[in-house]
Amino acid sequence: MRAQFVMSEIGVGLRRNLTMTFAVIISVALSLALFGGSLLMREQVSKMKGYWYDKANVSIYLCNKQDAEEASEATTKPDGAVTQAAGVATCRKGAVTADQKKQIETELKQMDLVKSVAYESADDAYKHYQEQYGHTALASSITPDQMQESFRVKLKNPEKYKVVTSAFAGRDGIHTVDDQRQAIDVLFKILNYVNIAALGIMLIMLVVALLLIVNTVRVSAFSRRRETGIMRLVGASSFYIQVPFIMEAAVAGLIGAVIACLMLVSGQYFVIDHGFELRTKIQIIDFMGWSSVIAKLPYVLFIGLLMPSMAAFLALRKYLKV
Q1: Is the dihedral of CA 50, 56, 57, 58 positive or negative?
Q2: Can you say whether residue 277 is alpha, beta or left, with left for phi > 0 and alpha for psi between -120 and 50 degrees?
Q3: CA-angle at 319, arms to 314 and 322, nearest 5°
Q4: In whole angstroms, how far apart are CA 271 and each of 53, 83, 120, 188, 274?
Q5: Of 101, 190, 252, 253, which has the fewest beta carbons less than 10 angstroms from its beta carbon?
């Protein structure tokens, strides 16, 4: 088989179906860009989970005088009011005592799954609140005595937060046990839904690209049925006749894959590192580096080359009679 003949046939085929070839390239580029983006998003979510779960604490909020007064008032009001004040029901015996705080701290430090325990006083809680929400109108009406003391518990395995919750929730002197991981889970669920949506769009675009490839190969085979008939009469093998068509699809797919790679690289450069500079503006997120992006590019190129070639090969078995 002469390489010059094959290359000339590839050029002829691409020129004859220029519009459809362009559509194939764009479809492959978009679908593979979404594919690469989905892989990067999945890795980013996993990285963020490890980062934020490690920082997530279990907060044990202690009863103060105001909580005790609200709990006492709730027991004397109608049933509806009792339901509304259910969060302070454990404070009806009064504010937390020094002995209760000491016992809670001792028990926490004795638990094997606890990595560290930090105590936050009402004054510290008030100071942190003012730092975060001091610009709001509500902040001016908050006083230090309204803030709750708390223990911030860091776990060796954040997945075991329910052990701490079940051990301390509902005890005298404890208002609530709050796990920050529950709030973080909501965020990651949303990110996972976005990732699933991107994968769904990618699959749709992939199907469109495959249909376009099959249609392009069919039109190309039909337009060159005379040449292929002559080749068959002079003894050319089926593989020899099919190769130019398969290579046409592979070239179009490879061009689309290269464009997809450029889109991924551009996204990292202009959105994350420069341009929008999300890495600088959103420092609470540990964005992926160039190594993660570059590691995905071979997959995009490989699929961009293999997918059209296989689609063309299967289409030729039906539309090209050799």
Answers
A1: negative
A2: left
A3: 95
A4: 26, 49, 39, 21, 6
A5: 190
Amino acid 151 reads F
- Strands (E) in the chain, as ranges, are 57-62, 114-120, 150-155, 174-179
> CA 287 from chain center: how many Å?
12
Name residues whose C-beta falls within 8 Å of residue 180's C-beta, 6 or more positions apart in sequence.
56, 57, 58, 59
* CA-wise closest residue to 121 among 103, 98, 140: 98
* Pairing assessment for the beta strands 57-62 and 174-179 based on DSSP bridges: antiparallel
Q: Mean pLDDT in each 10-residue stretch from start to end of the chain (322 residues)? A: 60 70 87 89 81 77 86 58 48 88 92 91 88 73 85 84 85 85 75 82 84 82 74 73 83 93 94 86 82 94 92 76 50
Of 15, 2, 58, the C-alpha closest to 183 is 58
| Residues 108, 84: Cα–Cα separation, whole Å | 30
Q: What single-letter amino acid sits at 23? A: A
Question: Tokens for 149?
Answer: 């003391």
Which residue type does 28 have?
V
Q: Report d(CA 21, CA 18) in Å as an integer.
A: 5
- Cα–Cα dist 310/206, whole Å: 13
**Contact status, residue 50 vs residue 200, Cβ threshold 8 Å:** no
* Nearest to 311, CA basis, from 246, 223, 237: 246
